């Protein structure tokens, strides 16, 4: 779950030394039967499939240590599974699920990191309200923020007010984050390392260096300064249009790992090299470093009035080496709109609708056409077409702590395959936040 944006407050309320919050999210999904000329090991089942349910529960703890310093700890329980074990659609259908063999709930430490705020010059201070992973305190408006430990790299990058949290907003993987950003993370979405942010009132710059998976989309992580690491830099600019707030962000990422190239994958298919094919599909650990993935991303958001906000994203990566951490998307373009329920006297309800188009590189396409498998997609062969998804949801505020969401996704060319689909996916989500 991404960090909640700190809310600037005007008063001088007393600072706190502790913060604690809780969330529980349950999502149940199903899809209708759909046309499929063939299926492979990673295909979304073309039979009617209902009742795939996920559950996550997180405790967000924080303790102020000294001036500007705090430690945050997030124990988490997660379990359940996605439709077809979260395989068969590059823009996977439930941002609260991941590719797992054992869906039994398990407890782990999602985040555990130290954060230090360093004021710049004679910076003025403002109070920020208590929030998820944010202690109520005075924060310098001009500062450097350093975070070190275990976290989700998406906590800091590619933020978007209207499309970033599958627990309350869009559920699709390629709408909760930039789909073409193969961001470094283990199976559950976390990594370890350091993030440094230069924050000004109207702009910010972020730079990070973090660990990458030892095995594609697996729990084991590694950081070797010359062989296995990932760096990301982002520039954020806040804007005002017609007296309404907005922002845009541009990031560059570069990841080094044991990921083979798709060209090597094609040779492995021809030679029946099952070991290398297992490395690519996340079933074995590679023994050769040298994989690299370079990517670019853009995110923009704009408030239009008290009820309506719009957003868009665009992303690209070079697509030469195999997907290693997030999902099998090499190009993406998305846009959407959210509307608060003020006009129908439900001010805390939100309706959202968005569309996303995903694509893959020529080497990636050739690998799938030859019968190759990644860790997310692969139908045994491929009749290529862009994967297009429309998602809409209505999030109803039912009580002080509980939200209920109805969600629908339409997926055309799942896993980039014109020979399968389209797919109609329905979901119900319950979310508790304290």
- Alpha-carbon Rg, integer: 21 Å
Structural class: mainly beta
Largest sheet: 16 strands, antiparallel, barrel
Strand content: over 45%
Q: What is the string of SSEs from the N terminus onward?
A: EEEEEEEEHEEEEEEHHEEEEHEEE
Principal-axis shape: globular
The N- and C-terminal alpha carbons lie at a distance of 15 Å
* Helix percentage: under 10%
Q: Walk across the major sheet and give the strand order.
A: 2-3-4-5-8-9-10-13-14-15-16-17-18-19-20-21
- Helix count from the secondary structure assignment: 4
Stretches with pLDDT under 50, minimum 5 residues = 1-12
Average pLDDT, all residues: 94
Count of strand segments: 21
Brief overview:
This protein is mainly beta and 434 residues long. It contains four helices and 21 strands.
Explain how this protein is built.
This protein has four helices and 21 strands. The chain has 434 residues and is mostly beta strands. The strands form three sheets. It has a 16-stranded antiparallel β-barrel with strand order 2-3-4-5-8-9-10-13-14-15-16-17-18-19-20-21. The chain has a three-stranded antiparallel sheet with strand order 1-6-7, with no helix packed on it. It has a two-stranded antiparallel ribbon with strand order 11-12. The longest helix is centred in the middle third of the chain and has 10 residues, at 262-271. It is globular and about 65 Å long.
